[in-house]
């Protein structure tokens, strides 16, 4: 039952949901959590319904927010994307979201 005190949305909570609720961000974070560091093409293949342009935008936004970082691959000009400590700290939240969706949604609709 909700608390009877007046409800005031916390700015930190709003900011968190503005990041996690933005289309593709949750999936990008989930892929990096489960698959680890990824090259852009690998990530694009796993977030396959997202255009490359939008994926670039989302990765830049997640970098600015401190959740994702570009990692230079030694002895190569390649760059890969990985979660920062802050991004990796979302693991329990993402697990809870997976558990909730398994409980409440009978099947995936593509």
Automatic annotation (TrEMBL):
This is HTH hxlR-type domain-containing protein. PROSITE patterns: HTH_HXLR (PS51118). GO terms for molecular function: DNA binding. It holds the Pfam family HxlR. Keywords: DNA-binding, Transcription, Transcription regulation. Residues 10-109 form the HTH hxlR-type domain. The keyword Transcription regulation applies.
């Amino acid at each position: 039952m909700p608390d009877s005190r007046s409800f005031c949305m916390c700015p930190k909570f709003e900011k968190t949901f503005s990041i996690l609720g933005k289309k593709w961000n949750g999936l990008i974070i989930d892929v990096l959590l489960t698959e680890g560091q990824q090259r852009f093409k690998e990530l694009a293949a796993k977030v396959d319904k997202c255009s490359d342009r939008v994926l670039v935008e989302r990765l830049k936004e997640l970098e600015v927010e401190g959740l994702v970082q570009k990692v230079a691959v030694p002895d190569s000009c390649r760059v890969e994307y990985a979660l920062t400590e802050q991004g990796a700290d979302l693991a329990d939240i993402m697990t809870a979201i997976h558990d909730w969706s398994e409980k409440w949604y009978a099947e995936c609709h593509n």
